[in-house]
Amino acid sequence: MGSAFIFLETSLEPVPEEIRNHPVVRADAKRRGKNPACILLDDSKHHLAMRSLQFREKRGRPDIIHQCLLLLLDSPLNFEVYVHTINGEIIWINRKTRLPRNYNRFVGLMEKLFVERKIAADVTLMEFADTPLREIVKDREVLLFREKGEMVDFGRMLEGDVAICIGAFPHGDFFEETLRELGFFREISLGRESYTSLYVTSRILCEYERVRANKDH
């Protein structure tokens, strides 16, 4: 089975229907020659339109998962990679995928993925998975990194088949529905401060590589 890195409630979604007719959204879509329904929600561009959205503090930040995936996919070790979106969808990422390092190209790729549901070259590079979150974590020890968790030396916990769960949204906390999907999990904290998703990913990946290098490389 092996281990998996799962980014939870990622701020990655097309512009929701209720704001697609907002002037700033329509202007952005027109500038890019796209349908407003087919562009990613981005707080830096759609801030005015997002004011009315529920949970808006958690939304519109595709740059977060872009940075985290670039870091994670650079690792030579073997593990599965999943992106769980804020709307509860699951994206499987092939470990051999080399994402665009340019943010705008990444956005274009994700917009294509949301439309076509799969990106492939010689092999499938990424696709939306029908497998629910609870099935992905099944038979793995679930480690949820959360500010309110235990401050422990977690290195020894990374030796088996684990599901390493990291929030990939800018503010707020996990939805109760997501926590229920995870089932039994252990909450781990890197400290009592609020850390960025990229910093958390970096800390965990460094420790994972230290523990697993001899086994997985």
TrEMBL record:
GO molecular function term, any single one: rRNA (pseudouridine) methyltransferase activity
- What Pfam families does UniProt report for this protein, alphabetically? EMG1 (PF03587)
CDD domains, alphabetized: Nep1-like (cd18088)
What's its catalytic activity? a pseudouridine in rRNA + S-adenosyl-L-methionine = an N(1)-methylpseudouridine in rRNA + S-adenosyl-L-homocysteine + H(+)
Instruction: Give the record's keywords alphabetically.
Output: Methyltransferase, Ribosome biogenesis, RNA-binding, rRNA processing, rRNA-binding, S-adenosyl-L-methionine, Transferase
Site (Interaction with substrate rRNA): residue numbering on this chain: R61, R98, R101, R105
- Which InterPro entries does the record match to this protein? Alpha/beta_knot_MTases, Rbsml_bgen_MeTrfase_EMG1/NEP1, Ribosome_NEP1_arc, tRNA_m1G_MTases_N
The EC designation for this entry is 2.1.1.-
Q: Name the site position(s) for Stabilizes Arg-xx.
A: D63
Q: Which PANTHER family match?
A: NEP1/MRA1, RIBOSOMAL RNA SMALL SUBUNIT METHYLTRANSFERASE NEP1
**Family from the record:** Belongs to the class IV-like SAM-binding methyltransferase superfamily. RNA methyltransferase NEP1 family.
Q: What does this protein do?
A: Methyltransferase involved in ribosomal biogenesis. Specifically catalyzes the N1-methylation of the pseudouridine corresponding to position 914 in M.jannaschii 16S rRNA.
Which protein is depicted? Ribosomal RNA small subunit methyltransferase Nep1
Species name:
Archaeoglobus fulgidus
